[in-house]
Write a structure and sequence with these properties.
It is a single chain. With 344 residues, the chain is of the alpha/beta class. The protein folds into two domains: 193 residues, Vaccinia Virus protein VP39 (Rossmann fold, 3-Layer(aba) Sandwich), CATH 3.40.50; 101 residues, no CATH class. It contains nine helices and 15 strands. The strands form three sheets. It has a nine-stranded mixed sheet with strand order 1-2-6-5-4-7-8-15-14, sandwiched between helices. A four-stranded mixed sheet has the order 3-13-10-9. Helix 6 links the parallel strand 7 and strand 8. Helix 2 runs antiparallel to helix 8 and helix 3 packs parallel to helix 4. The longest helix is centred in the last third of the chain and has 17 residues. It starts with 11 loop residues before the first strand and ends in a 12-residue tail after the last strand.
Length: 344
């Protein structure tokens, strides 16, 4: 247990030397979210529905597929450039990772910093405990905490009293920003400014537009893991909500949409069919898509423009040899955030 500052709320669990603070939001109304998504055009369910236990296992498998090069590329960049990316950080910096990643990604940063501390933020308590225990074992002298919370809606960081004055380095790897549409991405980045403070900095991984064939293959691998990941969404609707839907009536598709600079992932109806859920009946036409998620890609210039709207300025950028993926280091800009207009 740690003594928390005034902003802390109840609930902390210590496991294997790693403490998790519980600020898990109330369980979402899954049925209401599905109803809302099925009423949209095109029909689109929220991406968080993909991540039940089986979905999380499948996503981890996606990251190991040869077509999905993002994870290995980002890891190599962090290993190669950690010292340069952390050059502007003071001793005692607190690394705040949004979305519990892997031991491998944050470890180069912890090794490059002098006397760091680490806070992992994730919606999944089990993921936090697993990653946190492995990370603490790898870095036994680094003080660490986990925070179970929705990092997209986080009003403050409940920190130990002696951590409150540490300078902060936000870490948002995996090109996860691409799962937000540009307006949402701007609001999220703007919300990080008060969390990280006026001395705070942000390291963020950004996937860039490149060959459409390679992009589509990354999200529709030859082994069919991406397809299984998307189809598991329908299994979840059946198991948790009693939906009457045939997963075999849909095929998976990943399409590069150049006009929006994004990959659209969808389950496409094979022939006309009906989905029944509670008192709701939805008719799918032949070839009609059910969007499972989007992944937006940003050129360096487009991302820096978005970051500027959110109140950040770029101070460093490291890219792979093909210039297809970047890790950006940002610092607070003089101008206040203005997310009234965001475009890719």
């Amino acid at each position: 247990m740690v003594e928390m500052g005034a902003g802390a709320r109840t609930g902390s669990v210590a496991a294997g030397g790693f403490t998790v603070i519980d600020r898990h939001p109330p369980a979402p109304d899954v049925l209401a979210a599905v109803r809302e998504g099925l009423a949209r055009r095109p029909r689109q369910l929220p991406a968080w529905l993909l991540y039940d236990r089986r979905g999380s296992e499948l996503f981890a498998e996606i990251c190991r597929q040869p077509e999905y090069t993002l994870t290995a590329t980002e890891l190599e960049l962090l290993r190669r450039h950690a010292a340069a990316l952390c050059a502007g950080c003071s001793p005692g910096t607190l690394v705040v990772e949004f979305g519990a990643g892997s031991v491998e990604k944050v470890s180069p940063l912890l090794q490059a910093l002098a006397a760091p501390a680490y806070l992992a933020v994730d919606i999944s308590a089990s993921a936090l405990q697993e990653v946190g225990q492995r990370l603490q074992a790898a870095h036994p002298t680094v003080p660490m905490l986990g925070l179970c919370a929705d990092y997209g809606d986080l009003p403050d960081l409940p920190l130990p009293a002696d951590w409150a004055t540490r300078p902060r380095l936000g870490f948002f790897p995996g090109s996860s920003l691409g799962n937000f549409d540009p307006a949402e991405a701007c609001r999220f980045l703007a919300a990080l400014r008060p969390l990280l403070g006026e001395r705070g900095q942000l390291l963020i991984g950004i996937d860039q537009p490149r060959d459409p064939t390679a992009l589509e293959a990354a999200y529709d691998d030859g082994a069919g893991v991406s397809a299984a990941f998307a189809l598991n969404l329908l299994q979840r609707l059946r198991l948790e909500l009693g939906a009457d839907v045939d997963p075999g009536g849909f095929r998976y598709r990943a399409t590069w949409e150049a006009d929006h600079s994004r990959v659209a992932m969808a389950l496409v109806s094979v022939g006309p069919q009906r989905l029944r859920l509670a008192d709701l009946e939805v008719v799918f036409a032949d070839g009609e898509p059910l969007i499972t998620e989007y992944s937006y890609k940003y050129t360096p210039a487009a991302f820096l423009a978005l970051a500027a709207q959110a109140g950040w300025s770029g101070v460093d950028r490291r890219c792979d040899d093909a210039d297809g993926f970047s890790v950006h280091r940002l610092q607070p800009a003089a101008a206040a955030p203005d997310c009234s207009a965001s475009a890719v």
